[in-house]
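C-alpha cells in:
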C-alpha cells in the first residue's frame, strides 16, 4: 500500500493522475497505470430557496405565508436545487435534517414535530465535493396546535327596564338572555344549550364576544358551555357551564285569610 499528497495545492478543475512503479534493485519501471481523473471543486453552490412551506393538516390547508400561523407542526418544505446536492434544513439556525435533490432538480422535506411557537426556517445546499452554500432567505411560521378554552364571564337579563346580571344557577324571565365572555382573539365561539349548538359568534381582536339567542329559549333549566375554533382550525375544550333557569310562570294569586281590627276598643 502507498499514499501520496501533492506538495502544492491543486488548482480548481479536473486533474488526471497515472502512476508507474520502479524496482529500486533492478531499476526496471512498470507500465503506466490506468488514468484516474479528479475534479477539484472549491466553489460553493448558489444559496437555495425554499419554494413553499405547506400546511397538510385540516381544516385549513395549503401554502403558509411568511409570518403566518399554522396548526400543522410537521409542514412540508419544497424547493429546487442541483441534482445530487444535499439540502440541509435549519430551524432558527439549528439543523433539522437533510434531503438530497432529486434527478429532476426538486426536493421535499417534512421535519420532525415542531414545538408550538415561532420558527424561522432556512436551507443550505452542499455539493458532492462538500462545499456548503450560504443560507437561504428565512421563512417564519408560527406553529399553533392548541386553542385557548373560552370563558363565559356573564349572562344578562334584558327583559326588564334595566339589564340585570344573572348569576349561574339563578332564575330569569328573559328568554333571550345575553351571554358575554372571552376567547382566543379572532376565534369563532360556538354556544351550546346542553349538547345542542344554538349559535356562533366571532371574538374580536381582543378576544371579547357577546351572544344573544335569535330564538326564544323554552321555560326551564339551560346549561350553557361554549367552545372556540381559532383561526388555525384548532378546536378548544368546552368551557365551564353557566346554568340559568328560565321562569315564565307567575306566582299563584295570593289570598287574604283574615283582616284584624287593631284599634283600641275595636
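Residues out:
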Amino acid at each position: 500500500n502507498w499514499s501520496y499528497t501533492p506538495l502544492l495545492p491543486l488548482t480548481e478543475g479536473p486533474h488526471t493522475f497515472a502512476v508507474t512503479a520502479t524496482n529500486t534493485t533492478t531499476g526496471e519501471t512498470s507500465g503506466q497505470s490506468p488514468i484516474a481523473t479528479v475534479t477539484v471543486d472549491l466553489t460553493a453552490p448558489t444559496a437555495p430557496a425554499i419554494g413553499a412551506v405547506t400546511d397538510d393538516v385540516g381544516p385549513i390547508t395549503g401554502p403558509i405565508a411568511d409570518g403566518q400561523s399554522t396548526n400543522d407542526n410537521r409542514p412540508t418544505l419544497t424547493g429546487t436545487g442541483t441534482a445530487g446536492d444535499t439540502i440541509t434544513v435549519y430551524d432558527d439556525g439549528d439543523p433539522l435534517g437533510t434531503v438530497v435533490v432529486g434527478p429532476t432538480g426538486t426536493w421535499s422535506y417534512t421535519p420532525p414535530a415542531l414545538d408550538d411557537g415561532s420558527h424561522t426556517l432556512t436551507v443550505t445546499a452542499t455539493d458532492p465535493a462538500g462545499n456548503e452554500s450560504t443560507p437561504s432567505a428565512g421563512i417564519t411560521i408560527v406553529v399553533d396546535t392548541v386553542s385557548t378554552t373560552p370563558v363565559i364571564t356573564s349572562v344578562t337579563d334584558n327583559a326588564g327596564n334595566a339589564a340585570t346580571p344573572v348569576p349561574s344557577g339563578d332564575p330569569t324571565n328573559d328568554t333571550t338572555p345575553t351571554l358575554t365572555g372571552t376567547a382566543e382573539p379572532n376565534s369563532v365561539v360556538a354556544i351550546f344549550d346542553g349538547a345542542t349548538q344554538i349559535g356562533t359568534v366571532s371574538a374580536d381582536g381582543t378576544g371579547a364576544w357577546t351572544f344573544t339567542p335569535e330564538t326564544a329559549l323554552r321555560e326551564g333549566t339551560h346549561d350553557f358551555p361554549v367552545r372556540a375554533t381559532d383561526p388555525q382550525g384548532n378546536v378548544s375544550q368546552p368551557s365551564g357551564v353557566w346554568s340559568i333557569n328560565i321562569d315564565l310562570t307567575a306566582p299563584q294569586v295570593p289570598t287574604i285569610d283574615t283582616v284584624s281590627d287593631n284599634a283600641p276598643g275595636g
